[in-house]
Amino acid sequence: TVDTADFKVADITLAEAGRHQIRLAEHEMPGLMSLRAEFGASQPLRGARIAGSLHMTVQTAVLIETLVTLGAQVRWASCNIFSTQDEAAAAVVVGSGTVDDPRGVPVFAWKGETLADYWWTAQQILSWPGADADPQLGPNMILDDGGDATMLLHKGVEFEAAGEVPAGTDADPQEHRVFLDVLRETLALDGQKWTRVARGIRGVTEETTTGVMRLYQLAEQGKLLFPAINVNDSVTKSKFDNKYGIRHSLPDGLNRATDVLMGGKVAVVCGYGDVGKGAAEALRGQGSRVIVTEIDPICALQAAMDGYQVAKLESVLSEGHIFITTTGNKGVITAAHMSEMRNKAIVGNIGHFDNEIDMAGLARIPGIRKVEIKPQVHEWVFDDGESGGGASGHGASGERDEPRSIIVLSEGRLLNLGNATGHPSFVMSNSFANQTIAQIEIFSKHGQTDADGNPPYRNEVYVLPKILDEKVARLHLAALDVELTELSQEQAEYLGLDVAGPYKSEHYRY
Ligand code: NAI
């Protein structure tokens, strides 16, 4: 039974609705379901206490219940204030119990958290009942998306060693100032909490590009406190979820938010990495004329070869009807850029953090007004006395004389999860099969040593071996009626391969 004081969701009575969706999602997640069949009996995660921070969607519910099926205890929060599907969160809490007697997993997530709520939920997944008195009861694994749970722990340890939390400055993003305030409160209550928790952690498995970048930075500085597996760079993650997932969920987000016809419009996609490639393909598929911006000559050339115009954002501000950031970088669309856009241009981000679009700068433009069209859809009305295209002079003829405005989705946070429900189950089955295998790897190999006395994982960042990556793909073939050709022994020898794989060298790029 889940202690009724030990979870927080929007409305637990949504559990039944959530359960129906989870049941259908299971059918579309053959990777996770076959891992349940393969490992259900041997329980490789028995004894694992996993603190999970990842968008609390229907697909994540199937992941959580897979981890539990493999023996783990789990506490969960979302890694974004807008991405929770409340019915999925409720269903996970209820589990096999009832609304009055929940027996699932403690979830701390609801759609529309404040920043203070967000950091509270992050602390809840790392604060296990009884662990303050007995650290053995605390979490021993982290499953992260974007790295916030990992960052909370690393910063907590750093501040506890220093004995104080630095004062934020006005230049810090609001997000960071709220984070510092929350850690300051915890430090005042317990000066060793995060140090204790961190000592018990065997490792972290990280879902996304941005979180992985943060892990490599920590490892380079010698500051990483435990081993990490970079799930993102499994081929069956970043070349599938980031690309084909976005190809599905970007138009879904745009449609649910605005229902504006994409055909015929000019769509500007900032960044042509894995996410940008999926975004551009989706928009072109809807009949948009797509323009790409890039800083990397290789990706810029790829975009050109794929038939897209590649331009600087400044050159196409007045042309675009839709602007999507996919870079994982900061300050990509500035307030000055937005004030140059045509009337009713749609601006959205699909990268992990909201600093790709300068929302704070937009709010500071003199005279600007924010009108809520509906939750996660806002019109920003400029006070420049112009209409129908304004500064850029792109007014459609016949447009009413009204002030110029732009539409910003999900307040600059990832719009596929804020305005829609994120990636579909089948692609997430690939990502989450990698997550599950990575959790098993780190958890079960902890404490082992090889013949030379070396541990299999040090405080560094690893990717899963290719043979496991191929296994994840293999688990998804039957559902799509894929007939895979088998190498003959003779062919395998000719290529210098094993018939059972792996089939490519480590540096092959797919
Ligand atoms: P990536 O590294 O493959 O691609 C990012 C691209 O942006 C790179 O090619 C880079 O050269 C380019 N770029 C960087 N700064 C730029 C700038 N100022 N202007 C134009 N281009 C610029 O990374 P990936 O895997 O595509 O991920 C991008 C972001 O999306 C990350 O934050 C990642 O965490 C997030 N993500 C979001 C998902 C979602 O469901 N919304 C799913 C997967 C990843």
Automatic annotation (TrEMBL):
Main location: cytoplasm
GO (cellular component) term, any one: cytosol
S-adenosyl-L-homocysteine hydrolase NAD binding domain span: 242-422
Catalyses which reaction(s): S-adenosyl-L-homocysteine + H2O = L-homocysteine + adenosine
Note accompanying the cofactor annotation: Binds 1 NAD(+) per subunit.
Subcellular location: Cytoplasm
Family: Belongs to the adenosylhomocysteinase family.
Protein name per its UniProtKB record: Adenosylhomocysteinase
UniProt organism field: Arthrobacter terrae
Gene: ahcY
